[in-house]
Amino acid sequence: MGIDTKHKDLQSLRIDRSQRSETSGEPAAWARRYIVSGIAVVVLLGLSALAYRAFSSSIPEVDVVRAAAQASNDPAGSTVLSATGYIVAHHKIEANSKVTGRVAWIGVEKGDHVKEGQVLVRLEDQEFRAQYEQAQGAAESARAQLLQLEHGSRAEEIRQTEHNLSEAKATAANDKTSLERIKKLFDEGVMSKQALDDASAKYDASEQRVHSLEQSYQLAKIGPRVEEIERAKGALMQAEGQAAYAKSQLDATVIRAPITGTILDRSVEKGELLTGQYASAARPVFSLADLKDLQVELDIAQADFARLGPKQKANVAVDAFPDRRYHGVIAEISPEANRQKATVQVKVQILDPDEYLRPEMNSTVTFIADEASQKSNASAPQGAYVPATAMRDRDGKKFVYIAYNGRAVAREIHVVSQRADGAVVAGLAGGETVINSAPATLKDGDKIRIKGQS
């Protein structure tokens, strides 16, 4: 290859700087069109986003619930209120020991069925028995003393007193004769002054003894004084009271079942020392209840209390056995409300309890409307259940808002039956999307956004 040929090839690879300088700094026409179109699209998208945000911020966001269909044969149509509570024994007894003593014998266990009067626990009774025998002996002694006073002196005692009086009179007469003889001899100067004084003193003593025996003889015939008999009666009464108290203490060492029922709890063991029921450390020996007499204890909100009345019927169910149903009736309504909880306590008597029920079980009570209300509900059209928060009032009529195609649609309703937190209403078939919470300014036909949906 020649030198000329190589030179030509190198010239073909050289860049033409004259052409580049002519077009430098300005893109081609087609490039400018693409760039302008892209910028316009970005600006339009930004403006659209800003407009959507500004517009959507004025659309209220609402919560919705699904209206639950209410079948025509649903017994809930006759329900006025449902509430939950706990089963309790109508009468629960906690028995303590009346005396302090050590447990000698226990005859029951938790869950045992016992009859009224059945012996459950025995305490050691040696000391109590000795105290009772001592008190009983004192009472017998006081009784004998009273009988002695009431019967008075015996005939033999009166005769003995009379004999002693006669003997004393004879001695006094003899002493008087001796005194007169010595006095005569003293006057004649034969007897001394000392002999006269001794005879005079002896006679005076005999006279005093005669007077004393005369009083004893009269008292023996009259008998004891009324005051002595009354005092003896009082002493007997006191002794009998002490004996009765000692007997009650002895009997208290045997603890018996006060009613027929079931032992719920037993808190003592053999050998334990029990304190009397009035002591600060006293504790129940056992708790007892009749499980055939059960109630459900409920706290009814004051807002729902007006729906209930005395002797109102109810159905009772327990969480442990949801397939079982029991009949009940309101047995007790508290005369005062609970200010802290804003409730009123109601007790429902279970009319047909069985061995499945236990105190402290969770229970649900459904209160039933009276027959007139049930007939009214039966003839009324059935609809759907909606919560109370979804219902609104306007011009004396009730209505709800339905969420439909992004808008709120008002639907008039009629309450068929009340529930604890809502109502069964006519005017809905069930399945509608009901607005549960929304701004107070919401109107029929307004656009809405459902919470949680984009």
Description:
Helices cover 38% and strands 29% of the residues. The protein has 454 residues and is of the alpha+beta class. Among the domains are: 83 residues, conserved putative lor/sdh protein from methanococcus maripaludis s2 fold (Beta Barrel); 102 residues, Beta Barrel (Elongation Factor Tu (Ef-tu), domain 3); 69 residues, Beta Barrel (OB fold (Dihydrolipoamide Acetyltransferase, E2P)), CATH 2.40.50.100. The chain has a six-stranded antiparallel beta sheet, with no helix packed on it. Strands 3-12-15-14-13-16 form a six-stranded antiparallel barrel. It starts with a helix and ends with a strand.
Task: Offer a few descriptive terms.
single chain, 454 residues, alpha+beta, conserved putative lor/sdh protein from methanococcus maripaludis s2 fold, Elongation Factor Tu (Ef-tu), domain 3, OB fold (Dihydrolipoamide Acetyltransferase, E2P), 6-stranded antiparallel β-sheet, 23 strands
